[in-house]
Amino acid sequence: MKGKFISIEGIDRCGKSTHAKLLGRWLRSQGYEVVLTDEPTDGAMGRVIKRALKGEIKVPTDIEALLFAADRVQHISNLILPALKDGKIVISERYVHSSLAYQSARGLPLDWIRKINKYAPRPDLTILIDVPTRAAFSRARSSELDEFEKNIALQESVRRSYLRIAKQDRLKVVKGSRPRDEVQADLRKLVSAVL
Ligand code: TMP
């Protein structure tokens, strides 16, 4: 693979999107070709997942984990691998560690989630933006929130799962509740180290 694959993880509203966009802009200004992407995708599986997240359809937790994994298979083969083969830098907001953190917080065994995601290539770099749950949700209005986001206890448990798994998998953890420029500077250092 000629390109580089970076995934950005964290609880909802931790600032992933903002930082992914800023990273993308910075990398492009350095002459790199960048693909910004996210999961769940807008593909067939992703659309089902998004309906479930809005509460329009009810999906059991294990089936939901399989849907996220299936959506990922499409994401990898349709977008991630072709872009990496072309030498691009792929930045994905959410990837395997979202499944590990969220679906284990929703009660599924971590080993099983790892198994159904085994085919997924490991990113060159996975960054966890860690933000205390209350800080992440302090400005959110309840009408804007999806089913997972409404559940603060779930978000807290997702944060704990992320931090536990980050140790096991040696993810790079960046404290996200600091001024945006400081957080972004840390991310750029981490990215520079893998380029
Ligand atoms: P988003 O708000 O970042 O678009 O993500 C949608 C929700 O889906 C978010 O609450 C996290 C959740 N999610 C999982 O539970 N497992 C996964 O594998 C992924 C990619 C997302």
Query: Which sheet architecture does the biggest sheet show?
Result: 5 strands, parallel
Number of strands: 5
Overall radius of gyration: 16 Å
Would you identify the regions where 5 or more consecutive residues have pLDDT less than 50?
Answer: none
Helix and strand content put the structural class at alpha/beta
Q: What is the terminal separation in angstroms?
A: 13 Å
- Write the H/E string, N to C: EHEHHEHHEHHEH
Strand content: 5-15%
- The proportion of residues forming helix, as a percent range, comes to 40-55%
Shape: globular
Layout of helices and strands:
Layout lengths: L3 E6 L6 H14 L4 E5 L5 H10 L7 H25 L3 E5 L2 H10 L4 H7 L8 E6 L2 H5 L14 H18 L2 E4 L4 H15 L1
Parallel strand pairs: 1-3, 1-4, 2-3, 4-5
Bound molecules: thymidine-5'-phosphate.
General description of the model:
The chain has 195 residues and is of the alpha/beta class. The chain contains eight helices and five strands; from the N terminus they run βαβααβααβααβα. A five-stranded parallel sheet has the order 2-3-1-4-5, with helices on both faces. The longest helix is centred in the middle third of the chain and has 25 residues. The radius of gyration is 16 Å and the shape is globular. The protein starts with a strand and ends with a helix. The mean pLDDT is 95. Thymidine-5'-phosphate (TMP) binds next to helix 4. The site of thymidine-5'-phosphate (TMP) has 11 residues, from helix 4.
